[in-house]
């Protein structure tokens, strides 16, 4: 449970950062001069909800047996639906212009991939460290026995 909570916090911070970057890019592209301060609250709340979607990767049982690719696709659909709904609800994107919608989709996809790569590399590094410690433990244990 402690590791899951640490992962949620890490993912929350990653998603917050990526969302802030996305807002910056989108406002720069469309020359938006200022951003409403409520946007920051929206980013924090949405990032928290989005980080909770990561439970998809921890579920056991029949759903837990799905391949990682399927879980990533389901996760992306959940994240995309959340952020696109918010973008529409909070009027982040002028849905009357297809170019705005396509720009939003592109930015959101690129940031999702970047966040995924960051999180994946972090998990991989942690796995290597745990394997290294396990190897050290096994060596120490075999030396103590032999």
Walk me through the structure.
The chain has helices at residues 2-29, 38-52, 68-89, 98-145. It has one domain. It starts with a helix and ends with a helix. The protein is mainly α and 146 residues long. α1 (2-29) packs across α2 (38-52).
β-strand percent reads under 5%
Q: Major sheet: size, sense and barrel closure?
A: none
SSE run:
HHHH
**What structural category do the secondary elements indicate?**
mainly alpha
Question: How many individual domains?
Answer: 1
Helix content: over 70%
- Tell me the number of helical segments per DSSP (H or I, 4 or more residues long): 4
Shape: elongated
Instruction: Report the uncertain regions.
Output: none
Name the average pLDDT.
84
The number of E-state strands comes to 0
* Rg computed from alpha carbons, rounded to a whole number of angstroms: 20 Å
Distance between the termini: 37 Å
